[in-house]
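haha ok so turns out i had the wrong file open the whole time. this is the CORRECT one, sorry everyone. sequence first:
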Amino acid sequence: MRRVIALLMLMMCTTLGAAERRLSAVFSHDSGYVIEPIAGAGSATLLYRNGMRVGTVRAGEPKSLGCVSDARTATIDGAKPEDGDVLLATNVEVAGGETRDRELTAEETRSLLRYARVFLRTDAELDVNARVMDPGGELLIVGSWSTPEVACAGSLFLIARVDDVSAKKVTPQVATHRRRADCTDAAYIEPLDHLDLDGDRFDEVIARDHAKEGYDYLIWQRGPGGRWRATRRRGSGC
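then structure:
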């Protein structure tokens, strides 16, 4: 009987712990900093970049970003995001070693550019936002390849193992297309960072899904067999 009670208490604590886990995005805005909730209610105070702890953040007054945003001003102690940079904050200490995050090599850039143009069926110049992430022992290329706003082909969001990208072949684990409805809408998935949110020692990949009226957040999680699935969280979109 005591073992049963102890097991139930452990299960309750585990469930509560998981429910209390929070995730927020921290970035610069209007000559200051803001913190915007992605998952969970309440404050997320531990600041991370590339899966590594880089400081703390404290939420302040409400800050209007979009029609459904719940952002607040932020005070940061430690590494600060530059323009266009997004850091992640959580309320749970995340274990992480030295990161191997890096920029793409010239060969990787060429191979992925060819793949993106074939995928999007376009010869247009592409805006590239991609890098190599180290989410936990296996290097991944995570990025977005977008056509200019005057083109209608839209954009490609891709997750691929570094070992699956070569001069001859690209074999992605995720390849998602965002097409512009009227050739002028913003329509692309912006990779932000990675962080181990569920304690399985393999980081989730966090991204913003941009559309005409703002953006949502996507939490990409790798499951059994290397299959990825995305959980959508509301951001500043309408």
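The two ends are 52 Å apart (CA to CA).
again sry for the mixup
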